[in-house]
Queue: 2 jobs
Job 1
Amino acid sequence: MSKEKITSIAELGEFGLIDRLTEKIKIRNKSTIKGVGDDAAILEFGEKQVVVSTDLLTEGIHFNLMYVPLQHLGYKAVAVNVSDICAMNAVPRQMTVSIALSSKFSVEAVEEIYKGIYTACERYGVDLVGGDTTSSLTGLTICITVIGEVEKGKAVLRSGAKPNDLLCVTGDLGGAYMGLQLLERENEVFKVNPKVQPQLDGYDYILQRQLRPEARVDMIGIFRKTGVQPTSMIDISDGLSSEILHLCKNSGVGCNLYEEKVPLDFQTKKMAEELNINPLVAALNGGEDYELLFTVAQTDFDKIKNDPDITIIGHMTEASEGTNLITTGGSKIPLIAQGWNHGK
Ligand code: ADP
Ligand code: MG
């Protein structure tokens, strides 16, 4: 028997495991500008910087084929990767797709996934340039790598926020989480009685947020056009709290987030009420909204203040002031990351 300490993965958690696996990495090439630790890596070849991001989606963990249409799955797999490229302020250009398939998938089923992949490629202007295909014993795994391009000096890391910077978010939050709650509720009903039609009327927006999210490539264009250079940025895959804490930790700052400023859609609030969930909790701890969370210097305020897709939700502070949620009632409570883990 070995006396080596055995650590369960749960003990470390996702981020702890990544830290442990990557802490000994030695960068050997000058062309590696930024390695592990952000939404994407940054490489530099001559005057161009290239960003690279990879994501793995696993059946039963990231998606449930009971209620996720295959086309949407293909689309979402691309969108979530493109979102990481956007989070670097870069433009997506190429991607590779690798899949592992169990024997339960027909050729037609895989073609459905690819229909979604191609729709997303068209939408985001990305070329599919390669990948790998293999078999699997236990269902479907999709791994996508996206390569993007950014001018030297324009890439935005998680680490550039300064005290007094404005904390901003695109779109609205919590919708994808409420969409998932709705799908899971209807799936439970279906398991008990397959004859019952699912009750999904009036919730098209939150269902779309869950099943077919969009990456905010449009914002990258708007930043260029309006001359906004965010000081830090991340995409919201794990919930607002968790992402704010990433920005604060990486930038060495604190923050005040104002509860009443967090943008919530009508359908998100309605579903939350129906299920007796606080919609703010869905925004803070839900996930998969794939909006962009970023900071800008106060001097950029005029450039963003009239954009209906951008909400200022708070500001950064000195690290010593901590990371706080200022409630509508005016009390200050510490922001905690209950990042919704996708079961990762
Ligand atoms: P995101 O949620 O934006 O996809 P992750 O939390 O998955 O980011 O990853 C954080 C960082 O760790 C990224 O730089 C990613 O490339 C890196 N990373 C994640 N898993 C591994 C791994 N198994 N080996 C090396 N690097 C990894
Ligand atoms: Mg990310």
Job 2
Amino acid sequence: MDTKILSGKVVSESVYKNIKSRIDILAAKSINPGLAVILVGDDGPSQVYVQNKTKTFTNLGLYSETIKLKKETSQKKLLEILQKLNDDNKYHGILVQLPLPSHIDNETIIKSINPKKDVDGFHPLNLGALAAGKPTFTPCTPKGIMRVLEYYNLDLSNKHVVVVGRSNIVGRPISILTSLKREYSNATTTICHSGTNNISYYTKQADVVILALGYPQFLKGKDIKLGAIVIDVGINRVKNTETNTYKLLGDCEESSIKGKASSLTPVPGGIGPMTIAMLVENTIEAAEMEL
Ligand code: NDP
């Protein structure tokens, strides 16, 4: 079977094209959407993610600022900085890059972001609204997955979706989104995690498998049924010991999935670019609250 590649690059370009008119409307009212990103410590991948995010904002003529803090920064200091950003009208969106150093409590930090500026959609109020199917800032990666499915006209209604992973960032919210009673969703969703015995028992029954576990090449061709759609969210930096270089691998084994799946999001170039595009879109939405 020919496996169609679902390109997040292509879909994100269409998002940026469509967003231009919204930016123009805001500009006409002298509103320039602004994002503040807080980066604590010197985690390599986090630095790359933040750079990619802010570069995209700059390319679109939007304002963004990265506040880099030492990894020893206290939780109290971080809370003070967040309070200032909450009160500063320049910033419509605030993002705290995760993971945070272990002496800082993620939940306390996320809860202290003004929910109206929580463009990552991780605040409990926004996650609760999402679960209730109410308008909210939807976490960027799950929102990006849904946008890819819509773009390629892959309707989930009456389909069985199996999500592997239950984090608040990807697995949990995408399991909610796919099962909501709304266009392109309305699926029967099963969520698997480290407490699930024999995950392939579930994935073999799935019309759509969404992988968000962070385990390189976890899902093989033998674990899916012919014609399944595979959405691979995983980004795993894996070292080639012979060449001493790193490469990015997803959570599925592309070589055996290709030819068996009907569609697949690649790594890189699949869900990654969508996460950034949805961050831009959420920041525009936050700025539009001023209109
Ligand atoms: P987390 O580590 O927060 O969550 C991983 C989830 O997968 C947990 O629920 C965990 O179970 C489950 N899990 C881990 N290993 C196994 C296993 N062997 N079998 C079954 N379940 C397992 O990760 P994230 O959700 O933040 O990210 C997941 C992946 O997606 C990562 O590779 C990350 O880099 C990538 N990612 C990509 C993004 C993108 O833009 N493309 C954005 C965000 C993340 P349990 O709950 O029991 O611990």
